[in-house]
Amino acid sequence: MSDSRGNLPGVDLADAEVLVPSTPPHRLAMARLHASDSLRTLDLQAHRVRHPDLGSGAFDVAGSQREVDARLLLVAVGWFHRTCAAAATLSSSTALGDAVEHFERSVIRGRAKEMRDIWEHLDEYLQGVGRLQRSSQDTPLGRPAELAVWSWTGSPGTLGSLTWAGVSVDLDLVLAEAHRLNAVLQSLTLSAVPGGGEKSPAAHD
Predict the structure, then answer these.
(1) 201 located within any domain
(2) pTM for the complete prediction?
(3) Is 64 domain-assigned?
(4) How many domains does the chain have?
């Protein structure tokens, strides 16, 4: 993730002097980089959902490939969210903390986490012992009879909403909110992070 000089790609030269390895600014720089990678993964999966390509031969039905790509999109949402949450802790930024909380309300608690949980623990849900099946809510999610039922709603050119296992996720909203959160993260100045006044050791001849 670094070039041959040990610098993090995408870091402005003005920030370079505060990037002492293992300090909070350095860790924040790594968080920004990994968040960008996760967001690129989201964008890639969104493109694959919008434009399924059966050229690989892995699938013979476009709908099946879209479903799998949507699963991977939601996995990347988890990577992105955890990285941004860590960056908010490192930076002590109120703006980033508020943006992470908004993302959690609109996306993570907006059923993205539940759908990912069912997919990642499908073995438990097939046996009827999944976490959401055992919850106290009136209508448990991920009931065995619903695991084979999924549908898409939306207009051409959009990601639309995916409904599966009793859970609906607006994928267009997920992508838009991820880009909004990333913009806040990338706008942070590394030198403003606690510990950001620490300079790199001067080079010696």
Answers:
(1) no
(2) 0.79
(3) yes
(4) 1
